[in-house]
Write a structure and sequence with these properties.
The chain is 40% helix and 6% strand. It has helices at residues 8-18, 34-37, 58-79, 92-104, 123-136, 163-178, 190-200, 212-244, 304-312, 354-359, 372-379, 384-387, 394-397, 406-412, 420-431, 443-455, and strands spanning 111-115, 140-144, 292-296, 330-335, 338-342. The strands form 2 sheets. A 3-stranded mixed sheet has the order 3-5-4, with helices on both faces. Strands 1-2 form a two-stranded parallel ribbon. It starts with 7 loop residues before the first helix and ends in a 13-residue tail after the last helix.
Length: 468
């Protein structure tokens, strides 16, 4: 993927803004609707594949696409202020993958919206979002999905005693569970996704309705079998540990133990599981005439590949929490007449804050030139300094007045005016991140790690629908 770069002037301006005291926003600021992000007057069209004709050479078609794509990019920057624009895909090859998926996918009057990673959101919020989308977009079919089992889900917020506990608890609970379970085996919501596809009423080329009920029944039966095998394996392992007297208690990961590279590479837990090669053959026949193809289209890092693995109950396509991991579209057969098509994640052009994209995992953290504004956006809505158990520098609070040292810090902690820069600096000191030569707190490295933790769900920023 290729994105536009920030100018040095803009980077320096954002650094200065990040050093200003944070103004904590009320909970109502987390309520956001579709029109708030995609106002009708600010919707930007995405490029559509230019018409092509049978018998044209590959070079001719590609040259036409390149010319059209350049005209489309120029029109965006001529009609919109570059500072207002979000990050969006500038690589034509990624858009070509999108065009191919749209072409081979079945056109219907309805669409299905899977709510993925529901383990990162509490049940009341999930229900509210489902109601909102069904009301806002009549005819849209929704489904809930997670590659993790129910015990990995967030607790009901009504069972927590304070907002601080509600924010801090999931940071350790989810990681403890997610690192010790096999994903896909007990994925939640596969039947819900299939049922949503059923409601769209897909027909093959001969007008025969897909037998979704049979697929749902087979999926539930297969899931029960996988869960039984997993339980037998777990019991067998426990017995072997008792007999050999070598039982090892795995430490509960803490925020302080979080690694900067936790979101790099392949995130699949099922080590040793064969990744089955998808069908990527180039055929002369039109696949739309012979089978039904369901395309999975969306932003990067929203779990399209994980959804396919969950439906199949095993690792079929590689996944990663690093956006842009899927490079080319892949087709995976569910039945001889039905297949899924996994499209690479695509960042569409829009007029919305760049920090929202970064915190949503649409943009690679390693490519973020200036991470402090994203940290500020997060800290305005989540008490990051409390979740990370940060303390302000003693010399700032206790200095200058013959202060009482550490006790003085404790006394003034609640009144300290944090900035995004302060948070990054305090976190760098806590983690021991220092610059090579001057040995000063490495705030850039600390800011990047905070953003990685937000992408991974360790620092939760959850939005609510309007009127929640």
């Amino acid at each position: 993927s290729v994105f536009a770069k920030l100018s040095q002037l803009e980077i320096q301006q954002r650094k200065r803004e990040s050093q200003m005291p944070i103004v904590r926003l009320p909970q109502e600021s987390l309520e956001i609707g579709f029109d708030d992000l995609y106002a009708p007057a600010k919707i930007i069209s995405f490029p559509q594949r230019p018409p092509w004709f049978k018998g044209e050479s590959k070079e001719t078609v590609e040259q036409r696409e390149e010319t059209y794509f350049q005209i489309w990019k120029d029109s965006i920057y001529s009609n919109w202020n570059a500072h207002e624009l979000s990050y969006f895909e500038h690589n034509l090859e990624v858009w070509r993958q999108f065009w191919r998926v749209v072409e081979i996918s079945l056109s219907t009057s309805g669409s299905t919206l899977p709510a993925n990673s529901i383990d990162l959101i509490d049940a009341p919020t999930l229900t509210s979002w489902k109601t909102y989308f069904q009301t806002r977009f009549p005819g849209l079919y929704t489904a809930n999905f997670s590659v993790y089992p129910p015990e990995a889900f967030l607790p009901d917020p009504r069972t927590t005693t304070s907002a601080a506990e509600s924010t801090a608890a999931p940071a350790s609970t989810r990681t403890k569970i997610s690192k010790r379970v096999h994903r896909y085996i007990r994925a939640v919501g596969v039947s819900s996704v299939l049922a949503a596809c059923r409601d769209v009423e897909l027909f093959d080329s001969k007008g025969k309705l897909v037998d979704w009920e049979k697929m749902i029944e087979e999926e539930e039966s297969e899931k029960a079998r996988r869960e039984l095998e997993e339980e037998v394996r777990r019991i067998k392992q426990e017995k072997e540990n008792v007999l050999s007297d070598t039982t090892t208690v795995l430490p509960v990961p803490k925020i302080d133990d979080y690694s900067e590279s936790d979101d790099d590479g392949d995130d699949d837990d099922d080590k040793g599981t064969e990744c089955i090669s998808p069908d990527l053959q180039v055929e002369d026949r039109d696949p739309r005439n012979d089978m039904i193809t369901i395309g999975l289209i969306g932003h990067p890092n929203v779990g399209k590949s994980s959804l396919i693995n969950g439906i199949l109950g095993r690792k079929v396509v590689s996944t990663s929490s690093t956006p842009g991991h899927t490079k080319h579209f892949q087709t995976i057969h569910l039945t001889p007449k039905l297949r899924l098509c996994d499209c690479p994640g695509l960042v569409f052009p829009a007029v919305l804050p760049k920090p929202v994209q970064i915190l949503s995992g649409m943009y690679k953290i390693a490519q973020v030139q200036e991470p402090y504004s994203a940290v500020q956006y997060l800290a305005e809505r989540v008490p990051v300094e409390r979740v990370l158990h940060l303390k302000p520098p003693i010399e700032i609070i206790g200095g200058g007045g013959g202060g009482g040292g550490k006790e003085d810090c404790e006394e003034h902690f609640d009144r300290y005016q944090w900035s995004a820069w302060d948070i990054c600096e305090a976190f760098a000191i806590q983690r021991g991140f220092l610059t090579p030569k001057a040995a000063r707190p490495d705030v850039y490295r600390a800011a990047n790690l905070i953003l990685r933790m937000a992408n991974d769900g360790r620092l939760l920023l959850g939005f609510k629908p309007p009127g929640y």
